[in-house]
Amino acid sequence: MKQVLSLLIVMISFLSTSGAFAQSAKTASFKVYGNCGMCKSRVEKALVTEGISKAEWNVNTKMMKVSYDPAKISEDAIQQRVAAVGHDTDKAAATDAVYAKLPGCCQYTRKGAPAGSEAPAHPHK
Length: 125
Hints:
Residues 1-22 form the signal peptide. GO terms for molecular function: metal ion binding. The chain is built from 4 helices and 3 strands; from the N terminus they run αβαββαα. The chain is of the alpha+beta class and 125 residues long. The protein has a domain at 24-106: Alpha-Beta Plaits (2-Layer Sandwich). The protein has a 3-stranded antiparallel sheet with strand order 1-3-2. Strand 2 and strand 3 (63-68) form a beta hairpin. The radius of gyration is 20 Å and the shape is elongated.
């Protein structure tokens, strides 16, 4: 009887804990500038950190979808992490120095860029 009661208590506490996390999880979508699969790998890898459970960037739509715990990381901090690896977002811009280090195929046309400064063609997807 004690074992059954102990098991029941453990199960209830587990379910209430997992339910609490599910309620605190938040999803954000924002634009991330980039061009190809290398960009996708880079920006998704930048978001492998505590507080982020999922990050997926769509190369075609340029939209990033992130599931995160707002108690551990803010949406602004998430966008700053993406900018830190060279990709501009809705709210954060990469520094010129970091952007310049991107491979040519990953350099996109930045807002305010001079005419004729298009990114070079890239041979891969």
